């Protein structure tokens, strides 16, 4: 870690962030890693919806079509030119390889042509850095709940660069469980928001597994819950009897999310940390957000919750994490390549950039 590095706000550092890891082509300019000057997101979700999930080839083509315009608009809206930028930050992994390559190739070409430093950002660290956008005063140490389509973990953010994974999922990610539940209930893609909407009309009437509550340390397991939902729905359909899809959504959501809040606050207490944050698409869920808010009040802890838009994929969080690397002088060169998968522990290691 660079000794000069601190969290002080340096509004003069302008970072262009580029994110193309999944189905969103996003570009943004962030000042000092905290102040959003522009925030462009072009989603290809509608093109994937009829297939019930992201189709990698369609995503890559959509990024290729959208990236130039998204970056141009991000610069224009922020009122800055390429010459004003301090660095170009891009997500290099993890994600869909072809999709990542569009952003990485574009960022490399742009950084080279504009003679600006290139910064390689890990997507997961971006989700954690979304907390810095939510609260300009937010600083480590804090305990983070990472809840996305690919990860579920409790992470102790000890400093801007040192992160310790206290627990993670042993099988499926919580977002994956939402997407699977949506599919089995015949709800539209993307699954998380559809389940949340339907759950509001239901009750907690469906018996489901206990979710390693009070067990398993800070680890999670979602495959049993997923299977229980699938079995319940299939059994009900085979019987031909009526059942409440809203009750399934409600019961599932409650089981899936309560354990996250329990373990997040237990970890914070154990480590003596008084600030908690959350990031990743599932952190956009209203039931979870309310739950975290109530727990934080009860435990007298500070809760830093990114706006919903900055929980799901966006480029502002990439620029926010890019700023941290920029301040530490951790730059990538033009040999940078995209990486489809990166183990969580490697992604969060203090020397993550060196291990790239
Ligand atoms: O962070 P994200 O946008 O992409 C990844 O990095 O994975 O997370 C996407 C995941 C999907 O599984 C999606 O269903 C879930 O987040 N999600 C939600 C909600 N919005 C998105 N899950 C529950 N409730 C939501 N409102
Ligand atoms: Zn994400």
Task: Please explain how this structure is put together.
The protein is α/β, with parallel strands linked by helices. The chain folds into two domains: 163 residues, 2-Layer Sandwich (Nucleotidyltransferase, domain 5), CATH 3.30.420; 171 residues, ATPase, nucleotide binding domain (Nucleotidyltransferase, domain 5, 2-Layer Sandwich), CATH 3.30.420. 44% of the residues lie in helices and 17% in strands. It contains twelve helices and ten strands. The chain has a five-stranded mixed beta sheet with strand order 3-2-1-4-5, sandwiched between helices. A five-stranded mixed beta sheet has the order 8-7-6-9-10, sandwiched between helices. It starts with 13 loop residues before the first strand and ends with a helix. The chain binds 5'-O-[(R)-(carboxyoxy)(hydroxy)phosphoryl]adenosine and zinc ion.
| N-to-C order of helices and strands | EEEHHEHEHEEEHHHHEHEHHH
Supply the number of helical segments: 12
Q: Given this structure, which CATH class of the largest domain is correct?
A: Alpha Beta
Give a count of the beta strands, DSSP E runs of length 2 or more: 10
End-to-end distance? 16 Å
What is the CATH topology classification name of the largest domain? Nucleotidyltransferase, domain 5
* Unreliable sequence segments: 1-6
Structurally, how many domains make up the residues? 2
Assign the CATH superfamily of the largest domain.
ATPase, nucleotide binding domain
What is the strand arrangement across the widest sheet?
3-2-1-4-5
Counting helices, strands and paired strands, the structural category is alpha/beta
Net shape:
globular
């Amino acid at each position: 870690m660079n000794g000069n590095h601190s969290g002080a706000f340096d509004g003069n550092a302008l970072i262009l962030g580029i994110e193309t890891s999944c189905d969103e082509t996003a570009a943004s300019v962030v000042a000092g890693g905290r102040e959003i000057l522009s925030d462009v997101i072009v989603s290809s979700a509608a093109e994937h919806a009829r297939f019930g999930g992201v189709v990698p080839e369609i995503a890559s083509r959509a990024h290729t079509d959208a990236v130039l315009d998204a970056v141009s608009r991000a610069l224009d809206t922020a009122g800055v030119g390429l010459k004003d930028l301090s660095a170009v930050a891009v997500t290099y992994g993890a994600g869909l390889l072809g999709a990542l390559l569009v952003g990485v190739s574009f960022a490399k070409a742009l950084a080279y042509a504009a003679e600006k430093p290139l910064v390689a950002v890990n997507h997961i660290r971006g989700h954690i850095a979304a907390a810095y956008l939510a609260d300009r005063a937010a600083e480590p140490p804090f305990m983070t709940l990472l809840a996305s389509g690919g990860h579920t973990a409790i992470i102790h953010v000890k400093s801007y660069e040192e992160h310790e994974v206290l627990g993670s999922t042993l099988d499926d990610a919580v977002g994956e469980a939402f997407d699977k539940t949506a599919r089995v209930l015949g709800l539209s893609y993307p699954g998380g928001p559809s389940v949340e909407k339907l759950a509001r009309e239901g009750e907690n009437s469906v018996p489901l597994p206990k979710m390693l509550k009070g067990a398993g340390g800070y680890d999670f397991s979602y495959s049993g819950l997923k299977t229980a939902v699938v079995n319940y729905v299939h059994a009900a359909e085979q019987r031909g009897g009526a059942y409440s899809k809203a009750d399934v959504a409600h019961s599932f959501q409650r089981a899936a999310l309560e354990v996250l809040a329990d373990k997040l606050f237990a970890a914070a207490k154990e480590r003596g940390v008084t600030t908690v944050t959350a990031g990743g698409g599932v952190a956009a869920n209203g039931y979870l957000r309310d739950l975290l808010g109530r727990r934080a009040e009860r435990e007298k802890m500070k809760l830093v919750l990114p706006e919903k838009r900055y929980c799901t994929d966006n480029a502002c969080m990439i620029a926010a994490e890019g700023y941290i690397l920029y301040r530490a002088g951790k730059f990538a060169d033009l040999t940078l390549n995209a990486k489809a998968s990166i183990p969580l522990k490697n992604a969060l290691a203090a020397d993550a950039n060196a291990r790239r």
